[in-house]
Amino acid sequence: MKNYLIGIVFFAGMLLYSCADELDITPPSNITTEQIKKILASGDTTKINLIMNSMANAMPTQFNASGISGGGTADGRYRSCQGLDYMRNLEANDIVFGAKNLSIFGSDEYYLRDFISTAVDKNVIYWHHAWSIITTANKMLNYLDDATVGSSPRLKEYKARGLVIRAYAYNYLMENYQDAYLQGGKDKPGIMLYDYYSPTQPYKPRATSTETFNFIRKDLQDAVRLLGESGISFTTGVLTDIDLGVANFLLARVSLMTGDWSTAITACDAILAKYPTLMGEKDVLKIAQYIYEKQVEQVAEALKMVIDREDIKLVVTTGLGMDIIGLKAAETWGLDVKTMDEILTREDCVVAPAVGTALLMEQYCRNSN
Q1: For the purposes of burial, counting CB atoms within 10 Å of the CB of 251, is it exposed (0-12), middle (13-18) or buried (19 or more)?
Q2: Residues 67, 52 within the same domain
Q3: Model's pTM, two decimal places?
Q4: Do 148 and 213 reside in the same domain of the chain?
Q5: Which of 94, 137, 151, 217 has minimal CB crowding within 10 Å?
Q6: Residue 255 lies in a domain
Q7: Are 292 and 327 in contact (CB under 8 A)?
Q8: Domain check: are 76 and 172 in the same one?
């Protein structure tokens, strides 16, 4: 049965109308799966690009996804994949928990509390983020079966992009929703494995952890092969694509997690052959300084909303390793600054929301010096 895509293929309907003559589509508002595959198999680069570019070019952006469902409209903590990673990293903030029972943002992650049960509000954000990526990848991969891809270098590259992104998302789910494979997770359930997109396909049961990681590993190994065959190697200096460096990095990560040492070594050797010089202490310090300066800029920008208020005399920063950034940002505006410990017992302290930034919760007080 033919599947019809009404109005759009991967792009706006107006674009489809404008390209109808070049694609030889009649009528231009309706295009079938069979028509798409026929165009892709034709080898006509111009037509292939018209059909696939917007979808394929969206694959690398999944690594920087934002606007995640359930994450709010201005909450950087859970609205972007970087925010999710930042919050999860709070679990490694301290080796020993502090004595204070924090209730500010990040306290759930900081105290290693549950965030993946169905009743927890954060669960839907992590879950939806990964499954949205899988769905996006599968929608494109539906049209890139082996027969359609054939020997086309461009289609091999596009398929590799989809496979890498899908593998990344499935591994993301395993990292967040199951115990480490070598630390008891091997004999526990994995994830439901969907290798094509169809809103009407039956629900699948959870695969085993071994089956899930085998699925992920195969996607990445196929992607490495396809990238090589398409002529896409290591695109040095390009941060907006998916190349052999990205594919091999994910393959090495997954292989290390599952104890597949030989595959991990092979993938790492491929990366090191291209990038033999590892980061030194000066490089790490340079990056840390850059991040620090950017964080200070963001927090200082966020403080703009309170500096004009006459009743705000004092800015108080919280802990979680952010005091130094908060102090520096507040000093930018000439505000009197104290740390949380200095002001904890004051009765005139007013707790404010995050003042527009996910990186620092600002707490400020009234009528004080």
Answers
A1: buried
A2: no
A3: 0.71
A4: yes
A5: 151
A6: no
A7: no
A8: yes
